[in-house]
Design goal:
Elements lengths: L2 H14 L4 H5 L9 H24 L36 H21 L2 H6 L1 E4 L3 E4 H26 L2
Length: 163
């Protein structure tokens, strides 16, 4: 269930390989995020998804949720502003800290996915701000699409900065 998540994460690390911290923290424009901010956003998202999924498991209700078209999140022509709780800080950060936090949040989500039967994950849900109610299995899969969307953003930032 988690192979795609790992694959996209590895592509992210390959894409930023060799960049200096100053480059990672540089913004193409004042209103855009830096690569480091994108990485921090991915960490915040994984933490929120894992925490919300744990809370959803505690609910008594069991639901059957139709598959949502979250693959549409790859379309970067549509922009959705990140909710405040998953917006990255504006101050520069160290790659070591962000990389460590990303590894930790990734492990936590992977462990959550491995600890629970797929049928149980499909019977519990919480809402996505764009796609509506999604079951936990969909959320885990969505995470890889969300990261792939931001991998595209990272590549765009690199190009804008001439890196």
């Amino acid at each position: 269930m988690f192979e795609r998540n790992d694959e996209i994460r590895n592509q992210i690390w390959e894409t930023i390989s060799g960049l200096e911290e100053e480059q990672l923290n540089r913004k193409p424009s004042p209103e855009q995020w830096s690569i480091m901010q994108v990485l921090r956003h991915l960490n915040l998202m994984e933490n929120v998804i894992t925490n919300q999924a744990r809370l959803a498991l505690e609910k008594e209700q069991h639901m059957s949720i139709d598959k949502k078209p979250y693959e549409l999140s790859l379309d970067r022509s549509r922009s959705v502003e990140a909710p405040p709780h998953v917006q990255p800080p504006t101050a520069p950060e160290s790659l070591a800290d962000v990389r460590s936090d990303l590894a930790s949040s990734h492990r936590a989500l992977e462990q959550f996915a491995q600890e629970h039967d797929t049928a149980l994950l499909r019977s519990k849900s919480f809402p996505h701000p764009v796609f509506g109610e999604m079951d936990l299995a969909q959320w885990i899969d969505f995470t890889s699409y969300h990261e792939e969307r931001h991998l595209g953003q990272i590549r765009e930032i690199k190009q804008q900065l001439g890196l």
